[in-house]
Amino acid sequence: MWMKTIGGLVGVYLLIGLSDMLGGRGPTVDIVWLLENISPYAMCGLGVALSIGLSVVGASIGIYLTGASIMGAGVKEPRIRNKNLISIIFSEAVGIYGIIVSLIMLTNLEMFGLEAAEQNFAMKAQNYMSGYIMLGAGLTAGIANLVCGWAVGAVGSGAAIADAANPVLFVRLLVVEIFASAIGLFGLIVAVILNSKVKMGNIV
Amino acid sequence: MGDTFFNIQHGYLEGIVRGIKSHLLGASEYANLSQCETLEDLRLSLQATDYAPVLTADIGNLDVRELEDRLRTHLVDEFNEVKRNSSEPLTTLLNYIQHGHMIDNVVMLLLGTLSGKPVAELVAKCHPLGRFPNMGTIGIATNSSELYEAVLIDTPLAPYFKECSITEEKLDELNIEVIRCVLYKSYIESFYDYCQGLGDTTAEIMAELLKLECDRRAMTISLNSLGTGLSKDIKESLLPARGHLHPYYLPELAKIDDVEQLKTIVEGLPEYKGIFDDGEENLEDKLIQKEVHMCIDSFLHQFHYGIFYAIFKLKQQEVTNLIWIAECITQKSRHKIETCIPHYP
């Protein structure tokens, strides 16, 4: 279904482009023009939204995968319920990574004068770069956290069931879970370093 | 991908089912049970297991019948608990499990009424997993068209009856067995196709389990039909066509004249190689043992529907085992206990 949607959008874009080109309005089909006219603020906003949004989706996948199994396995073995809350905490941490990245990006977001930017090319470049960096950082953190939450959830669900069957296994599976949880940290670190390059505002 | 969303609907039930599985009786419990001298001892030994609540001390006089009743009720309660909490496609899979028992019940009722037993007594004997409304009315059927139109048309078994030749011929023992085979064949084939439609791990696990079931039916039918005078074509049409024996070995299986020929055919398949090697137990026990192992193995995968089929197979086998032990105790032949229990890890 996704492929069809994407294919449809590309098809519509190509049709419009072709009709413009054949109708003598060629220069309006201009990707550079499109990119230049997207405001850096839009990029910032998109970055923040993607980072927090995808992270929360990852965290929720992790929590439901784990939570459903803990509830079910806890019916016959109630002792697992306290220990396995740690899997829920790991999933929740994934959401927190997303918040951290979003907050850092929001503190870096500054107003800049569009008029001044048109006069000063270095300043314009600086602000546009910041916009793209924030989009990139948001995507990095968001996607990393999405798959991290997924992995933590799947392992956590297995851990709950394994713990119910044999208590010795819990500590071993916890190690696996910690490694899964580290995937999200990679995304967080890269996003934070990317954000240190951001410099917005009326500065050169 | 599909695995990930399994837990939204079925994660809770999977947890419960795995809980039930880890509470199945193990080797040490069986060792204890086989030491029991009386049924009262048996009841006490079961106090430490999942069966404690169903075997409370208030049963005055515990006999095998009562024990069987209570164990089965317990099994059905667990089944219903899972089924009530289930959502599609699991509900359909659980329905399929029930349909198998319904077929057995219908055939038992038909055979019972044929030999003139009272219907009420027969209905009480039916497996509770396969109960359906209006079971008592089955006794009125004298031929297969009446059976279909009066009783089965309102039950979930109606679609399976399509392939049965609906005749006005009077129902006799052979007819009823043929009806059972046809119903079961179309049931198990439809079950197999349904599971393949679910795809992923479910298809993989259920294929192995149901193929074994098909092959077991095929072997049993071809053995039981020896000397009944059924023609080879009819015989072949009764064998479920989904197992490992399908398609190359089924015609051969329909042609056999004795057990040795069956053994030669079955041994030729890699899946059943060496199954007759020690030659002590009978074929049925061997296949049950194989099935139990496969059911246990299916728990090694997560996020699939096969465990729901497997757990109720295992549970039923456990109930059968307990009843067998109880029978052995009451008939003072305890040496038989060990020989007939499939081994649990």
UniProtKB/TrEMBL annotation, chain A:
Give the family this protein belongs to, as stated in its UniProt record. Answer: Belongs to the V-ATPase proteolipid subunit family.
The protein here is known as: V-type proton ATPase 16 kDa proteolipid subunit c
Record's subunit section: V-ATPase is a heteromultimeric enzyme made up of two complexes: the ATP-hydrolytic V1 complex and the proton translocation V0 complex. The V1 complex consists of three catalytic AB heterodimers that form a heterohexamer, three peripheral stalks each consisting of EG heterodimers, one central rotor including subunits D and F, and the regulatory subunits C and H. The proton translocation complex V0 consists of the proton transport subunit a, a ring of proteolipid subunits c9c'', rotary subunit d, subunits e and f, and the accessory subunits.
Which residue windows are transmembrane per the record? 40-65, 85-109, 129-162, 169-194
Looking at the record, the residues that make up the V-ATPase proteolipid subunit C-like domain are 46-105, 135-194
Kindly state which keywords UniProt assigns to this record, in alphabetical order: Ion transport, Membrane, Transmembrane, Transmembrane helix, Transport
Give the lineage.
Eukaryota, Metazoa, Ecdysozoa, Arthropoda, Chelicerata
Per UniProt, subcellular location reads as: Membrane
The keyword Transmembrane appears for this protein? yes
Membrane topology (UniProt) = Multi-pass membrane protein
**Record keyword Ion transport present:** yes
Task: Please give the function described in this protein's UniProt entry.
Answer: Proton-conducting pore forming of the V0 complex of vacuolar(H+)-ATPase (V-ATPase), a multisubunit enzyme composed of a peripheral complex (V1) that hydrolyzes ATP and a membrane integral complex (V0) that translocates protons. V-ATPase is responsible for acidifying and maintaining the pH of intracellular compartments and in some cell types, is targeted to the plasma membrane, where it is responsible for acidifying the extracellular environment.
**Predominant place of localization:** membrane
TrEMBL record, chain B:
The yes or no answer to whether the keyword Ion transport is present is yes
Report the superkingdom from the record. Answer: Eukaryota
Could you tell me which SUPFAM superfamilies the record lists for this protein?
A: V-type ATP synthase subunit C
Q: Name one Pfam family in it.
A: vATP-synt_AC39
Protein keywords: Hydrogen ion transport, Ion transport, Transport
What is its biological role?
Subunit of the V0 complex of vacuolar(H+)-ATPase (V-ATPase), a multisubunit enzyme composed of a peripheral complex (V1) that hydrolyzes ATP and a membrane integral complex (V0) that translocates protons. V-ATPase is responsible for acidifying and maintaining the pH of intracellular compartments and in some cell types, is targeted to the plasma membrane, where it is responsible for acidifying the extracellular environment.
Query: How the protein assembles, per its UniProt entry?
Result: V-ATPase is a heteromultimeric enzyme made up of two complexes: the ATP-hydrolytic V1 complex and the proton translocation V0 complex.
Question: What protein is this chain from?
Answer: V-type proton ATPase subunit
Q: Which organism is it from?
A: Cordylochernes scorpioides
